[in-house]
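Below is how a single chain appears once it has passed through the pipeline. First comes the sequence as given, then the structure the pipeline wrote out for it. We keep one example in the README because the format questions we get most often are answered faster by looking than by reading.
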Amino acid sequence: MKKIDVDLLEMLNDDDIKLIIAETKLDMMLSPFKQNSKTYAKYMSRLGRLDSKSKMVKVNLPGIVYELYNKGDLNMRKMLSNQAQFLKNVIVKILTEYETEKLTPESFWDIDSTRCVAILSDIENMDSNNRIDIDLFFLQLKLNAVDISENQKNEIKRIWNEQKEKEAALKIVEDSYKNKIKILKKDYEAKISLAEQTISNLKVKIKKQEISFEDLTNKLEVQKEDNRQNEKQIKELLTKLEFSCKQLEEKEKEMSDIEKELGELKRKNESRRLELEHAWQKKVEDDNKKLIEKKEQLIGKNKIIQMQIDSLLDDRSKAEEQLKQIKECIFAAEEQLTILKNDIDNYSSERENILSSVSQNSASVQSSGLNLYIEPGMCDIQREVCEKYSQYIMAVETNMDNVGCKISSGVLDNIFNAAVDVGLIPLLCGFGARKAAMALIAARYGEMPTIISIPSGYNDVAILSREIDKAKTTVIIKIGRESCRERV
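Resulting structure:
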């Protein structure tokens, strides 16, 4: 079985399908019903005799085919697919035979409406079998994957209909004058024929009189009167003949005047046609100017877009470089993390020793009079969530610049984030460590952290732990002082 061109059918709407059905011969549509009478038994009563000349078939068959097509009937879809393919090939063949210029369906993508109508008129006049149906023409273009806009379709239809109306009006005028000329010619021919018949009869009569002239010599006197009467009749007939000739001359003059009127009408039509062509040419030139301006605008926009693309490519290169640095930092952080894990194990054992030592010497620590210095933080600050990682990096860089930190933010914040993400406590040492810590915390957590300053020699871990638990902020900075250095 031949495969149905489903893609060709799927690209069509209901109006297109109805137009294809209208262009399909009744015998072709009746074929599936004749071959599968049992399958379509319920439609037979509406079709009667399966004869293309039947009135029931002419009235009901197109609607039944459309109904079955919408129900997905394979026979109907195959038949309409074949008809659609036929219509698709017909327009290609006609355009191939067009000798004025090389045309394909794609030639009508952005064709000028006036030129399109001119081409269709040439095709229609090229062969009497080429009957142009403008809606069918649009469908055939669509079947060849050329779907022009509705505005252009309407414009082509309007110009086509105006041209057809003008041609019809001109044909009516020409037919009217042709009929008048035909009637006048027939009347003149009848009158000339009558005059010629009369002359012929007179000639016969004269000849008879000449033949009997010698025999009637003796009766000349008697026949003089008859001859005078005959001459009188001849004169009357000649007078009538002259009158008929004058009438014929007048009619010929009238015909000449009619021909002049026709020439004047053709001249006016030609003048009007030239005016219309000039108007359309001017409109085409204006449209071309607009298209050129629009093209220049698009070229300018393309240049701007290309500049933006180049900028994005530069940003991408920078981002890739930053990503490379981040990967290097992560690798360094992973090495640092391994070291920190080993330090944690050592710290845990040292912490247990310190706690046992603190519990034994708590009395002496309290008597020492050393106190913690606590600066409460703020967590009710209005926060703004960074939607992109680049926004977070920009916030870190801004904060670090504000506190005067000259270390690259791409290194410091990566180490800080890596330590926090694996559950470790970052340790910052050196002058300005507190400002750097607050800048990093503000960017990551959006708060001012609680700061606990631990004096030298302080060892009351229980109080320190309680103060940490009492803090309202997520992050706490613990500061220990050794001479002029700052450890956070």
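The beta strands are 373-375, 450-454, 476-482, 485-487.

See the next section for the split statistics.
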